Amino acid sequence: MSAGRWTAERSRGVGYGRPSFAFLLNAPSLVVIVLLVGYPIAQSAWISLHRYNLKRPNVFRFAGLDNYASILASDEFWSALWITAQFVALVVGLVVVLGIAIALLLNRPFPGCGVVRALILVPWAIPPVVNGLMWQWIYDSKVGALNGALFALGLIPEYRGWLSDPTSAMLALVWADVWNMVPLAVILLLAALQRIPGELYDAARVDGGNAWQLFRHVTLPWLAQPLLVVLILQTMSAIRAFDVIYVLTAGGPGTATTTLTWKTYLTTFDSLDFGLGNAYAYTVSLLTLALALVYFRVLYRRGEFEA
Amino acid sequence: MSAAPADRLSPAARRRLTQALLMLGGLAVAIYVLAPFSWLVMTSFMHERDALGVPPQWIAQHPTLENYRTFFDPGGADKTGTRAIVGSRAAEQTLPGMANSLIVATGTAVLNLVLGTLAGYAFARLRFPGKSWLLGLYLGSRMVPGIALIVPLYLTVKTYGLLDSRTALVVTYLTFTLPFTIWLLKNYFQAIPRSLEEAALVDGCTWPQMMMKVLLPAAAPGLVAAAMFAFMTAWNDYLFAVILTNTIAAKTMPVVVAGFATDVTTERTLLATSGVFAVIPPLILAFAFQRLIVQGLTSGAVKD
Fold this sequence. Notes:
Oligomer: heterodimer
Distance between the termini of chain B: 32 Å
Structural class of chain B: mainly alpha
CATH superfamily of chain A: MetI-like
Number of domains of chain A: 1
Structural class of chain A: mainly alpha
Strand content of chain A: under 5%
CATH architecture of the domain at 93-298 in chain B: Orthogonal Bundle
Shape of chain B: globular
Order of helices and strands of chain B: HHHHHHHHHHHHHHH
Number of strands of chain A: 2
Number of strands of chain B: 0
Shape of chain A: globular
CATH superfamily of the domain at 93-298 in chain B: MetI-like
Largest interface: A-B, 101 and 95 residues
Helix content of chain B: over 70%
């Protein structure tokens, strides 16, 4: 907004230009956000500094940073952190690779590409709980489609319990989450691809660039900003993944898919340890924040991202 | 791609080869996207014994509408034994769950539009101290994982006696969806020429009249997109719904479906049908507003 316009507006004496009006317009939203996000965050921090277990509801004793200390000292935390790191890295990696591949494909005109572009919205529209349910059956050890298909193709000698082996359970969970998340990446990347001026490619071709060089030096830099958005959105949603874990693996087998979010849920609503649970929740929030900052810094430094 | 052999082909043949490869890729994507989902839909048209068959039936060999009928007519005469028991539970919860989900998601969308329009307008058109700070506050509130808010929210909702109510869910979802709505509407409002509203104001319209008659109609696509995203978020949520609701008075579809999914006695075909129900509204919206969704999702994420 230019300063000139602003003064013109004011000199005309239109009352709607005053700051108080802007605050009036913002008041309802601000109240909602402060009351339902700000206040809970503060209360959550307060609870995390206390011993507070619903199994002994009358005890609410200040404990300082004891909950955080016991988290950092527990193997469970480090195990959950490592599992979260694997889950997030796999999901984000696959979403980015598949997202770029599908977006590049759909960016080219071919008969039926409009239909495929529309179909890509299907996984996006499916609620995560239904997604988990759907994959639960596909992975089923007795009657699942995955077993049926792989067996029919002769790729496996016998049916397997995909969700009962730690490694395959993790991969199965990742794949299910990726299926749900890929469309968003495709949509964002495809929109960016469609804005690349054709002259850029022409110029690069004149300079004798091959397909890989075109991709590396024209397409990829152009995708830096949408990729940052995809990275941030996917990292946050992978750290938060809950529904699909709840339905598909419930953190198992053993603790093979017990991510920090799932561990927070278990501590809070299974052990009913609200004090420790909130300390876990805070740890998850701080990690999310730290990661977002790292992404911003890395991409800002390279000068490829402008807000 | 295989550069050497392709070089030997004529340009026309090369173009045909490229087209064929692209179509093959497109087909692969279509299968990847559709296959898992169509199996769910297929299962909802199967008899239970077919759904439990080995090897799995890719196409229902004895297609039936029985599963769907069970939901609309739980007391139907043609059911026996376990089906009657399990089926009636599934049937009892699914339709009320759909109603709850529709009410909660619609309520969230409507409130989003009202609050989002007001705040979005302020960010798009007005200059005030702390503007970018406030927008940062809104957007930053989305960085907090839901799991970190759930305990205090649960305690608050409990204090006000709103546990197991649709109101509590609407208000909760409003907080998650509002920041994005404000951001989206701000962008849409900014894209509308100022001269439009200035003309209306000069003509003697009051601010609310100008909004209703000029700006909001011009921003209609943005409003539809914002309402849709809010609706989808509210429709999809499981974590808050499962913690804040107990009974079918407020349980939403994801809670109902997850309840069946983790219950070993549930019949798969009924569960699949209930899953299909849960997918229908978002799927209809996704296809009806495909262009607006893509526009909305990319707004802000892609440089102009």
